[in-house]
Model the fold of this input.
Amino acid sequence: MSTSQALLPEFDQEMANTRKTLERIPDDKMGWTPHPKSFPMGTLALHVAQLPGWMTMTITTDELDIGNQPGYPPPETNTQKALLELFDKNVSEARAALAGASDGTLMKPWTLIVRGSKAFTFPKIAVLRSFVMNPLIHHRAQLGVYLRLNDVAVPGLYGPSADEKIF
Done:
């Protein structure tokens, strides 16, 4: 079994769980933030919706120079519907890129450059896990806290949540 085929079931499960979380984001809470240093809910949700696109970018490129990237802009996506459309597009493209990636591609080095200096070089598979999948799971969990603090039912991800009484 190829590396990409081994990773696809986890990818599918995590994307389904992430979609369940994004489906709960209330349109009227996009600007809500739990703390002045925290992203507003809409900005955090946008980041989560964009993260699968990083998988496509990692598989199809060999480096990224973030010194040439604009700062993190406020979201133009102000509705749950628009977030889900963006997320679904990114997931579809990422899944296709992952499914089509050979072991050779996934073992190729990928480099992050910050203002002209190399920050790190890892095999693409390590970047996919450490800088795409794991952060997506982390930020999705943050959204779960945001939902709880706003009395929005938190979806069960790896079993039922306190809001889902199945027993």
Notes: The chain has one domain: 3-149.
